[in-house]
Amino acid sequence: MNAKLDSGVTTRPVTRQTFDEVLVPTYAPANFVPVRASGLDVWDQEGKHYLDFTSGIAVCSLGHSNPVLNAAVIKQMQTAWHFSNAYTNEPVLRLGLALTEATFADRAFFCNSGAEANEAALKLARKYAHAKFGPHKSRIVSCLSSFHGRTLFTVSVGGQSKYTEGFEPLPQDINHINYNDIESARAAITDDVCAVIVEPIQGEGGVIPGDLAFLKELRELCNKTGALLIFDEVQSGVGRTGALFEYMNIGITPDILTSAKALGNGFPIGAMLTTNEIAQQFNVGAHGTTYGGNPLAATAALTVLDEMSKPGFFDRVKEASARIFANLEQLAVDYPQLFGKVRGKGLLIGLPMAEGYKGKAKDYTKTAEKLGLMLLVAGPDVVRLAPPLVVSDAQIAEADRIMRQAADEFLKAA
Ligand SMILES: *Cc1c(COP(=O)(O)O)cnc(C)c1O
């Protein structure tokens, strides 16, 4: 084949088939190609409409094509896209102020994804412990079935071995304990541990809320041993559980907090937040990334925070959550052969498949998708709902109608 850049690259027709021909097969995307979206409404290449209860995996929390975000990002686009970290910029300075004023943290580091935020957090924890206690304090404790991203370090820290198989040798000195298991936490968190990383609610692992007693015990064990407590709030944060971050709901303050996903509403940005004392270990040259906190990404995130600061925003998230929980509880009562007990918090919700339909969560979501409702899974056994936080009561009712119809069709076909 001739190597040349075709002149019509931006306009030529493409289909779902093109994915299978030219993209590295790391994903198995849905059969339709979404082309346009507004709020919770998505349309595909054929003009078919979908109601989006995924938010692009808990990302577009203020809805697709949000007019306030569009205006802010377009304005910044016409002003300047990127300068690099050889220069700072006004949006990132404002974003740093906003995040440190709104949280426990004194300092923010910006990057481009959740994995990068966790990579920064883990590297910082190692460096802090080495400087303060010596190189023996290097062990990282994480939880089984956790998810922290896909770099080699973050998959190794993550608690799902299917994501590390074939990538050995892996980074060393990482131990996994059972989530919500206080005894195994006590056994594992000893003086040689530099960091304990935990999702306050496990997202990818099945939407499993952390027990308050377990998370408190992690805090105490970290205090006792000098390990840093890292809360991975990449999925639970930025409003998803009805507070800016879930740590505020539970009243347990970490030493480092990581954020991404909804922070940019779809504009890639990640953040690591920490205290003055810990941040000092990331001195000039210790860590970095080309795009981190560039003006466009920082503007998107800043505008997201501004929207969420409006009075009543988080109250409405809680109200929408209560409605959806009530609907799903009733759904599980009406279809006990299909669904188990609904769980989660705010608008991060898991609906486990009942015993007889284990492994079939994806099949159920495909049935709902045919009927025009986009849903996620969290592992093979759990249907996950993560609608934009701006979901209306009418949209909640429509999703309930489709989930019921999908349950009927799914049972008929099974
Ligand atoms: C999605 C996710 C990540 C990884 O974020 P990326 O932006 O995909 O790198 C890390 N931790 C948690 C809890 C997540 O849900």
Automatic annotation (TrEMBL):
- N6-(pyridoxal phosphate)lysine: which positions carry it? K261
Indicate where this protein resides in the cell. Answer: Cytoplasm
Keywords carried by this UniProt record: Amino-acid biosynthesis, Aminotransferase, Arginine biosynthesis, Cytoplasm, Pyridoxal phosphate, Transferase
Catalyzed chemical reaction(s) = N(2)-acetyl-L-ornithine + 2-oxoglutarate = N-acetyl-L-glutamate 5-semialdehyde + L-glutamate
EC identifiers of the protein = 2.6.1.11
Quote the record's binding site residues for N(2)-acetyl-L-ornithine.
R150, T289
Which InterPro entries has this protein been placed in?
A: AcOrn/SuccOrn_fam (IPR004636), Aminotrans_3 (IPR005814), Aminotrans_3_PPA_site (IPR049704), Class-III_PLP-dep_AT (IPR050103), PyrdxlP-dep_Trfase (IPR015424), PyrdxlP-dep_Trfase_major (IPR015421), PyrdxlP-dep_Trfase_small (IPR015422)
Q: How is the cofactor bound?
A: Binds 1 pyridoxal phosphate per subunit.
PROSITE patterns, per database record: AA_TRANSFER_CLASS_3
- Coiled-coil annotated residue ranges, if any: none
What does the record give as cofactor?
Answer: pyridoxal 5'-phosphate
Chief location of this protein within or outside the cell: cytoplasm
Subunit relationships:
Homodimer.
Family affiliation: Belongs to the class-III pyridoxal-phosphate-dependent aminotransferase family. ArgD subfamily.
Q: What is the official name of this protein in its record? A: Acetylornithine aminotransferase
